[in-house]
Design a protein that fits this description.
The longest helix is centred in the last third of the chain and has 23 residues. The chain is built from eight helices and ten strands. The strands form three sheets. Strands 1, 4, 5, 6, 7 and 10 form a six-stranded parallel beta sheet that branches. A two-stranded parallel ribbon has the order 2-3. Strands 8-9 form a two-stranded parallel sheet. It is an alpha/beta fold and 263 residues long.
């Protein structure tokens, strides 16, 4: 297991801090939101305005990692949208374009044009259609994979992991007519076999949620953003991200153990 972990390229955050990546799902007006996945268009516009006012620029994860490799990512913030809701095209894209921002939409290729059936207690939300995904990709928006059927990966047999990662990538590449290099773990659920499956499927990176011993290129941590998050909460979340990243770096270096105490 340790050998497998060590074999993941750039797995540990290393001496550089992990990039700040914001995690969104739906941008819409909803009266009921039991999973707290929806940000109103007005709140989203205000959040993007705050990024712009503070000298930051929102970008896709693909652009963020390329800039990071060149040492040019100092004021960049990754913007990600899980599940591929149709309101990404309707509400998020116009607000992002206003500031010259880009973003990544992680979609479920075998559910395009349907609804979010996995959110049993939440409102029904339309997913992007095949045509919308094609148009977004043609316009320069990054399209990434969210697996097949929005199924959590930890605990799945190796052959199922391979199908979830490889077939979803192949389907999306056929759809957009180009490379799909990013993966996002459904529900943010990740373990070592899942990261190895993503790597072996040919992706260049994958997004998780939490900082962990897997934090790195194939388990990038992200910051949840909700409808309650105004300027001061975003500042606080950025500070918390930096603190968690520092702790993760110390754990990777062996200065402290996984439970937080010194070794």
């Amino acid at each position: 297991m340790d050998a497998d972990l060590a074999s993941l390229p750039a797995q540990a955050a290393g001496p550089r801090a992990a990039p700040w990546i914001l995690m969104y799902h739906s941008v819409a007006d909803e009266e009921e939101d039991p999973y707290l996945l929806t940000v109103s268009p007005e709140r989203f516009a205000a959040q993007m305005a705050w990024l712009y006012r503070t000298g930051r620029r929102g970008v896709s994860v693909r652009e963020l990692l390329a800039a990071r490799a060149a040492g040019e990512d100092a004021r960049l913030v990754g913007l990600t949208f899980d599940d591929g809701y149709a309101d990404f095209a309707r509400h998020a894209v116009p607000a992002l374009r206003e500031y010259g921002f880009t973003a990544t939409a992680y979609v479920v290729p075998d559910l395009l044009g349907t609804e979010n059936g996995w959110d049993v207690e939440g409102p029904r939300k339309q997913l992007l259609t095949v045509d919308q995904v094609t148009q977004l990709a043609s316009a320069g928006w990054e399209i990434g994979s969210h697996g097949l059927g929005h199924q959590a990966l930890p605990g799945l047999p190796a052959e199922v992991l391979a199908r979830q990662t490889r077939e979803s990538r192949r389907a999306l590449e056929d759809l957009v007519g180009g490379p799909v290099t990013g993966f996002c773990y459904p529900y943010g659920a990740v373990d070592l076999p899942a990261t190895l499956a993503v790597r072996d499927a040919g992706y260049e990176y994958a997004c998780a949620i939490q900082h962990s011993e897997l934090t790195g290129r194939f388990a990038l941590p992200r910051c949840y953003v909700g409808d309650r998050d105004g300027a001061w909460r975003l500042r606080a979340k950025h500070g918390r991200h930096r603190w968690r990243d520092a702790i993760t770096g110390l754990r990777h270096s062996g200065v402290i153990g996984q439970r937080g105490g010194p070794r």
